[in-house]
TrEMBL record:
Keyword rRNA processing recorded: yes
Record-given protein name: 23S rRNA (guanosine-2'-O-)-methyltransferase RlmB
Compartment annotation: Cytoplasm
Matches recorded under HAMAP family: 23SrRNA_methyltr_B
Pfam families assigned: SpoU_methylase, SpoU_sub_bind
An example Gene Ontology molecular-function term: RNA binding
SUPFAM superfamilies: alpha/beta knot, L30e-like
Recorded name of the encoding gene: rlmB
Purpose of the protein: Specifically methylates the ribose of guanosine 2251 in 23S rRNA.
Enzymatic class: transferase
CC terms in the record's Gene Ontology section: cytosol
Superkingdom per UniProt: Bacteria
Organism listed in the record: Acinetobacter pragensis
Length: 249
């Protein structure tokens, strides 16, 4: 049996029990904590026979790897890693999906925040490079606040090649966000009537040239004053909101 993963935080554990309860092996709850939020988690777990163990704060911290566990940690069967084939299957089955690609986002907090926003905006999959990028760690899952259980997280060997393939095989429009002379204000791009993949780059370096080369259109978020950039998770939220506004999601 594969080694279990550990999810922590109220939102993350609640979402897991609501969407994939069969994966939960054991719940570890802080001794002496009795409140409605924790009781709700116990009620979600009870129908599935999930073992509940009371644990000290030190034990929870060791399981979570951090002290910010909110008094609950779940031991979970690992989720299969999704890859290029899973993306192909999704695009074959979906009509005009909205996708998000993240180019070398290395901070798990930013990744989690982007996934949380993606889930709220109806994104079907978040695509990231397998190397030199944050993975779906317990920290990213906690920040995602349940979003990681609602959006497919797909790791690919070569992001630029994957973007090229989904354009060619599935007619996905690839839209990159960047400051560029050829970029349109984001509200002027038509996000309707087609499958769209919004591509976001790292705050310090932006999209790599090899990724830029796969973008059908470059867009930017107009800003007042002299600001030139935003936190990637904030910019992702603004870009996805505009896409959803146009698509009436």
């Amino acid at each position: 049996m594969a080694k279990p993963e550990y999810y922590y935080g109220v939102h993350s554990v609640e979402s897991l029990l609501e969407l994939e309860p069969e994966r939960v092996l054991t719940l570890f709850a802080l001794k002496g904590r009795e409140d409605q939020r924790l009781q709700h988690i116990f009620e979600l777990a009870e129908p599935f026979g999930v073992s509940i163990q009371k644990a000290s704060r030190d034990t929870l911290e060791k399981l979570a790897g951090l002290p910010y566990h909110q008094g609950v940690v779940a031991a979970v069967r690992p989720h299969p890693t999704l890859n290029e084939k899973d993306l192909d299957d999704l695009l074959t089955a979906s009509k005009q999906p909205l996708l998000l690609a993240l180019d070398q986002i290395t901070d798990p907090h930013n990744l989690g925040a982007c996934i949380r926003t993606a889930a709220a905006m109806g994104v079907e999959a978040v695509i990231v490079p397998r190397d030199r990028a944050a993975s779906l760690t317990p920290t990213a899952r906690k920040v995602a606040a349940g979003g990681a259980e609602k959006v497919k997280f797909i790791q690919v060997t070569n992001l630029a090649r994957t973007l090229s393939q989904i354009k060619e095989q599935f007619n996905v429009q690839v839209v990159g966000t960047m400051l560029d002379e050829q970029a349109l204000p984001i509200q002027q791009f038509d996000f309707t009537g087609a499958a769209v993949c919004v591509v976001m780059g790292a705050e310090d370096t932006g999209l790599r040239p090899i990724t830029q080369a796969q973008c059908d259109q470059k867009v930017y978020i107009p800003m007042a004053g002299n600001l030139q950039s935003l936190n990637v998770s904030v910019a992702t939220g603004m870009a996805l909101y505009e896409a959803c506004r146009q698509r009436n999601i």
